[in-house]
Specification:
heterotrimer; A: mainly alpha; 8 helices; C: alpha/beta; 6-stranded mixed β-sheet; 4-stranded antiparallel β-sheet; globular
């Protein structure tokens, strides 16, 4: 029983870490989504210069590990003299990183609409803005929703990396407890179980959305 | 001072040494996962407990962070006296995680082959092995090269997380150099360039394979 | 109709050496009985055309012959050899053959599908030689020579190295015929092979089938092309509701049907197509 008590406290501590993980993921997913949509639109409708810039940005993000970006932001931010709390620093990096992947999801959603939809909208005399607003977006977002949710799962998992640059969340919390209890199996499996509950719930929701797309509504 | 040529001249050989470990990890992971993922995908397609276990494996590894899996393998196994080296732990965790993703890619490829293809093969007197090796798998492979290429790129990036258990791959080398020198910009630049080079090579290999194996649909 | 074929027609069925024997096949999908105790004997070199309304079970019957569909009762033999199920000599019970035996038996039955089902990742010639080389162990060079002969027969000599996606539907279907013939089957089955084709491509496929019939191939053809059926068939089999309602020589079935159901079916057909 004496050995069990610290573990119980440990699990309680893990749940508080999970709270932080969720907070970080939710705060990061909002700018990432907006950025993703903006980039997708730039890539489809932007000037040649804008499109080239987007291609460069995507190449950069797709080719470099998130951990590299997080680590160097951690070291570089103080050097540039920007006084940003670490929490906002990592949220910024997560948003830039996942914004790139989200843009591809949204772009694919927009481009996979049949040409006839664009033609129909244009033939009704709609401006591009109106066309996007009432014809293209409602359909494209529905198509993009399932892969978007999958990216959210990845984002939740990716928040674990911020523990390597010293931020406190679920993974960091689990490492702290392991150092105190010397029970890595029990604690890390506990942390894995919490991550699984969050991510699998999201994944199931993604599956549900996918079925809805496949069957019309 | 950024972009110090003397510093860069000392830095690059060290980073490349780390990159060698990175490449080893990535290539081994990809090679093992190409086999392991197929085994899991075929197992998942069978009815009964085997299919159920394979499905559960895929969901669990996809919905928990690689970093936690890494800690479980590295710290957990050593706790019960089955300790592996950092490299072996890293490789094992990378394979466990990516095996789930690769299995899903195979599953998608297998589902995309119409039941009529199986039927046509059987009508020609083909038995299971001939049917799969001559008719089904070549079509699956041609279809899955693009997602498999993306997975390969993702694996290269994932190897950076092995730095967390002190394996001297490129990310860890970079951390050591950042902490022992003040040239953060240069180290970041060097690491970014090498990762971009590695992922670009993976991309080119995938494109070449695609051109060789794809067929007109 | 020429005289040679009409004399052949007169000796249809029982006079010939039986090539295909279907005995008492029954099959159900859930509660729906699609085949009810169907028996059919096809003689060597005979061309039997199966007609009937959709849902009558004719496609299912064809697919049961080489066990692409399983069935609950009955047996099938090709040239005297069982395919799928064997009757146990002592107990008289049906015993399912092993997968190896079934695969070996399928070599003798060629089938051409409505949707061609060519292998999209192989060239035309590769499609044709795949089974002879990989199933029968024919040397590749010999299989390819035979494959080119078959392509010449269906009029596609120049397409040997094309991929299926580059061919028209009619061309793909002729390749599918050549592919099935490459195993030197004893009998050929055709499952509505022109139904997916544009009207202007139907003729070339029917011509290839006619050529095959003239060469003496035993054929069972499921089709909706009535005038073709009349031309090519030694015997017409009319199915409805999972049973064979009527069978006989084409002239008799088409112009003097014995049952009301056939009369009605032909009238509806003629009203639609005005033949």
């Amino acid at each position: 029983m004496r050995e069990f008590a610290p573990l119980l406290h440990g699990y309680w501590y893990l749940l508080r870490g999970a709270e932080m993980t969720l907070l970080m993921a939710v705060v990061a997913v909002i700018p990432a989504t907006l950025l993703g949509i903006a980039i997708a639109l730039l890539q489809i409708f932007g000037s040649r210069f804008a499109r080239a810039a987007v291609v460069g940005y995507l190449f950069f993000i797709r080719g470099i590990p998130l951990l590299v970006l997080l680590t160097f932001t951690y070291y570089l931010l103080p050097l540039t003299g920007i006084d940003l709390p670490p929490f906002w620093g990592v949220v910024l990096v997560l948003a830039f990183y996942y914004g790139a992947f989200m843009s591809e999801v949204f772009r694919a959603g927009i481009l996979s609409l049949p040409r006839a939809q664009w033609d129909a909208a244009r033939s009704l005399g709609m401006t591009r803005r109106l066309m996007l607003q009432i014809v293209i977006f409602p359909q494209a977002l529905r198509l993009a929703a399932p892969p978007f949710v999958n990216l959210c799962v990845n984002l939740v998992k990716a928040t674990s990396l911020v523990s390597i640059v010293g931020l406190w969340e679920l993974t960091m919390a689990s490492r702290e407890i392991v150092e105190r209890t010397l029970a890595p199996f029990q604690i890390f499996l506990g942390a894995a179980a919490i991550y699984f509950c969050i991510c699998y719930t999201l994944a199931l929701y993604g599956k549900y959305l996918e079925r809805r797309v496949l069957h019309g509504h | 001072m950024p972009f110090d040529p003397h510093f860069l001249a000392r830095l690059f050989p060290a980073l490349l040494e780390g990159a060698e470990v990175t490449v080893e990890l990535a290539v081994l992971t990809m090679a093992i996962c190409l086999v392991w993922g197929l085994v899991v995908a075929l197992a998942q397609a069978t009815p009964g407990p085997l299919g159920w276990i394979a499905g559960a494996y895929i969901q669990v590894v996809r919905n928990t962070p690689l970093l936690i899996q890494l800690y479980i393998v590295y710290f957990g196994l050593s706790m019960i006296g089955m300790g592996l080296s950092g490299f072996a732990s890293g490789l094992l965790a990378l394979c466990i995680q990516n095996g789930g993703y690769v299995a899903e890619i195979y599953r998608g490829g297998l589902q995309a082959v119409s039941a009529r293809q199986y039927e046509a093969g059987r009508a020609l007197g083909m038995r299971r092995w001939t049917l799969y090796s001559v008719v089904i798998m070549p079509q699956v492979i041609a279809r899955i090269i693009p997602p498999m290429t993306n997975q390969g790129i993702s694996i290269i990036k994932d190897t950076s997380q092995v730095a967390a258990i002190a394996v001297m791959e490129m990310m860890k080398v970079a951390q050591v150099w950042v902490e022992s020198s003040a040239n953060t910009y240069d180290v970041f630049l060097g690491v970014a360039i090498i990762y971009l080079a590695l992922t670009s090579v993976a991309n080119v290999v995938g494109k070449l394979a695609e051109r060789r194996l794809a067929f007109v649909q | 109709m020429n005289d040679a074929s009409s004399t052949a027609t007169e000796q249809a069925g029982t006079q010939r050496r039986p090539m295909l024997e279907i005995t008492g096949i029954s099959k159900r999908f859930g509660t729906l009985e699609v085949l009810r105790d169907v028996s059919l004997s096809v003689g060597a070199g005979e061309v039997v055309v199966v007609i009937g309304p959709s849902g009558s079970g004719k496609t299912t019957l064809l697919r049961c012959i080489n066990l692409l569909e399983d069935y609950e009762q009955g047996t099938v033999t090709v040239d005297g050899d069982p395919i799928g199920y064997q009757l146990d000599a002592r107990s008289g019970k049906r015993v399912r053959m092993s997968e190896r035996e079934i695969a070996a038996a399928r070599e003798h039955v060629g089938i051409v599908f409505q949707s061609y089902n060519l292998f999209p990742h192989m060239s035309v010639l590769q499609n044709i030689v795949a089974a002879p080389v990989r199933v029968k162990g024919v040397p590749r060079a010999r299989a390819e020579a035979r494959g080119r002969d078959l392509l010449a027969m269906v009029g596609l000599s120049d397409k040997a190295d094309e991929y299926p996606a580059r061919l028209s539907g009619g061309q793909q279907q002729r390749v599918a015929i050549a592919r099935a013939l490459a195993l030197d089957p004893k009998i050929m089955l055709f499952d509505e092979v022109t139904s997916a084709l544009d009207p202007e491509l139907v003729g070339e496929v029917l011509a290839a089938m006619q050529q095959l019939a003239r060469n003496g191939m035993t054929m069972v053809v499921v089709t909706h092309e009535m005038s073709f059926a009349r031309d090519i068939a030694n015997r017409i089999v009319f199915m409805d509701g999972g049973v064979i309602v009527e069978q006989g020589q084409p002239e008799q079935v088409f112009f003097n049907p014995k049952t009301e159901r056939v009369r009605l079916f032909l009238k509806r057909y003629n009203d639609r197509y005005r033949i």
